[in-house]
Design goal:
Number of strands: 5
Order of helices and strands: EHEHEHEHHEH
Number of domains: 1
Structural class: alpha/beta
Low-confidence stretches: none
Shape: globular
Distance between the termini: 15 Å
Number of helices: 6
CATH architecture: 3-Layer(aba) Sandwich
């Protein structure tokens, strides 16, 4: 089995990057080979260009070489794991741009049978607010629906999980705090990767 691990944070020493590193360990322990896609480190340009704008009259449009290379990495993966900070109650611009440009018409959607239908996907987002504040504002439901339905299911990926880890930026940091975040993320991913008779 092969996994594409996508991380969207500008700092390699960030908590998000550490969660991604722990996710890689979990994937490899579960028997996956891992393709690490660090969007910032690889210099991905999230801006849409005419070359990559979908053409609703041509689902076989040849997109830019950069986008086609990313499409190939998505297509090669059995599982896609995306690790990101929640900024402004949504995806960072670089990650949203990756979805806009790469998960494009004729590739991720617009075909039957769907190319990505057999894949599994796990979104792991780190929020600064506590769970209570996030839930009270309705942001959990909004973000989960956007990712699980608006992206994954829209592209025929039904086996999808969204894990939001709250309180990534506590009012009073403690030495144990980062490990709690890392363990929560790793446990959620391991549970997702473990088949059960009733769900997999």
């Amino acid at each position: 089995m092969h996994a594409l691990l996508v991380v969207a944070h500008p700092r390699t020493d960030s908590l998000t990057a550490r969660v991604a590193a722990r996710a890689r360990e979990s994937l490899e322990t579960s028997g996956y080979t891992v393709d690490l896609l660090d969007l910032h480190a690889e210099g991905f340009d999230p801006r849409m260009t005419p070359e990559d704008e979908p053409d609703w009259t041509d689902r076989d449009k040849a997109y830019s070489p950069e986008v086609r290379a990313h499409m190939a990495r998505v297509e090669a993966a059995d599982a896609i794991v995306v690790v990101f900070p929640v900024w402004w109650f949504g995806l960072p611009a670089i990650l949203k741009g990756w979805i806009d440009r790469v998960w494009n018409y004729g590739f991720a959607y617009g075909r039957r049978p769907a190319r990505l239908a057999a894949k599994r996907m796990h979104w792991i987002g780190l929020t600064g607010y506590t769970e209570e504040v996030f839930v009270e504002g309705g942001w959990n439901d909004l973000l989960e629906r956007t990712l699980k339905v608006g992206v994954s299911a829209f592209c025929a990926i039904e086996d999808t999980e969204v894990t939001l880890i709250h309180g990534a930026v506590p009012d009073t940091p403690t030495p144990a705090h980062p490990e709690r975040i890392l363990t929560t993320a790793a446990n959620a991913l391991t549970a997702f990767l473990t088949p059960t008779p009733t769900t997999r």
